[in-house]
Amino acid sequence: MLPEGYRVELVAPPISPKGPSFVVRKYFVVPITLVDMVRMGTISSDAVAYLWLMLDYGRNIVIVGPTGAGKTTLLNALLYLVRPDAKILTIEDTREINIVHEHWQALLTRPSRSEGVRDVSAFDLLAVAMRSRPDYVVVGEIRGEEAYVLFQAFGSGHSGATTIHAETIEDAVRRLLTRPMNVPPMLVGLAHVFVRIMRVKVGGQIVRRVVEIAENMGISRGGRPRLHYIYRWDPEKDVLAQVEESRHLETISRARFVPVEALRKELERRKTLISLMASKGYSTPYVVAKIFTRYHLDPEGALEAVSRGQI
How many whole angstroms separate alpha carbon 271 and alpha carbon 61? Predict the structure, then answer.
């Protein structure tokens, strides 16, 4: 780990017979926001509005993708949507999440380098997190037994988000169900929304795109996920298009006694806000946090202010 927080991997002979090599993984000093992503075409404004509503109503989100797809970047950007009075607790191996939020507690794992000093794993930190009464529990990436504890937290009423390394959403579910994660099928159903992001070629360039968003409707007796895809990326048009209506809106409506039509109107209002922010270039982290905070307090006032350029 470099002093700046960048990750470095060094390999030397005889492990690397053709000579030494190194990789430096740098993160953005100024985090990329969802408004940046809308402007870059990574995600659509209506998909952002949908994910925002899901977070507001306590739906858990799992971001899926291969190495270098932008999973953590998207996770970081999503956390700006969390309401300002909620407590966010994040757990990471390496500090990558960087958000503007008053009630954010960041925890880091600690591998032991000394005899007699034990490791502090994500599993350990999740146990600590449950005593901190967070509203949102966020794990940078799940790889092993910490997945079971995270989903236990989901089952006890905490909301949250995480990322998992997998090529497809179906592969991600299989990883959750099998060793070393071993999340029971009933708990896997608490991963309410899966978002798949990957690097694709558009116009001769490699870019990052959210290619699928699916609602998890549970696990069948045969162990297969029942996925309801609501957004898919169209490679010919380079557009993330809605292909089905959300079923979670119906679930939220019944659980929270909010008419479905009211939820749809709220989605449209949030989509309008995101589109306006993108068109006016309101994309820096502090500006995005300021607008989203105001929206939670006064939706119409925030929309009017952005429309007039008076943020």
Answer: 19
